[in-house]
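During the reporting period the student researcher (J.K.) took over the structure-prediction task from the postdoctoral fellow and processed the backlog of single-chain submissions. One of the processed entries is reproduced below for the supervisory committee.
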Amino acid sequence: MLGLNFALEAAKQHTVFGTVHNHPIKTKAFKVLRANFLDPFALDQVLTQANPDWVVHCAALANLEACEDNPALARQLNTELPEKLASIVARGGARLLHVSTDSVFDGQRGEYTEYDVPNPLSVYAQTKFDSELAVASANPGAIIARVNLFGWSLSGKRSLAEFFYYNLQAHEPVKGFTDVYFCPLLANDLAQIFLQMMNGGLKGLYHVVSRECITKYDFGVRISHQFGLDSTLIIPTSVTDGGLKAARSPNLTLKSDKLANDINRSIPGLSTGIEGFYTLYQQSYPQKLFGMRLRNES
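J.K. obtained the following structure tokens:
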């Protein structure tokens, strides 16, 4: 979701190469390359073909339950791959923006800054934190961005906002966690902030999240109100009753003051993001993304 939305936003001003694997797409907005990054030669081939000034690394095994089921694959994709990429990019002279996650924290208190020490609770969170350390070591000039995001995706199943919208639209009841707090940014806003960070020559660790934080239940309610859907279909639920295998951090409120200061702008809040999510819907943006899917998608 992030990679596609970032590529579409960046392509308005830059030449972009977007790399895909199991989800091929067709678009005139940017050049599409297909590669399996588990192939030992894939990274070198893609970077040689694109010859980039910047590399934005969004690839990951981001399904927390899948990471618990296959920790070896999670480590391979979430830690070893970005470490290798960081080394190759550093040698080639390009700059790297590596995408990490707010989940590196245990969520016991919230209001985390970049100076707080992470304590990952899940395989996913641990492999992503390990990737931060590996990337910083291999490529000290890289940007490492801890994010949480929502938006429209190729499949319609990649963000919490889509989960609430599509289920509520179908009049299906859903659970909303009342005891999990997060600070999500609209993917398109996140892409524009990434571009500003890159253009500003930033490096090091940043929290790139909304300045406004909310429970996942309340987020669902606000999505329902924005679209005129029935919020009573959202069942207030504790995360402990969610039947999830991977541990979730309850309070992932992160401070983005360092980012706001260094790019000299206010970070968007949730109201702006949810309105933007709705505006994209009005502009048939989800249909545009869906139309990029190739029929032989595996």
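The committee noted the following: Residues 281 and 287 are 9 Å apart (CA to CA).
J.K. will present the remaining backlog at the next meeting.
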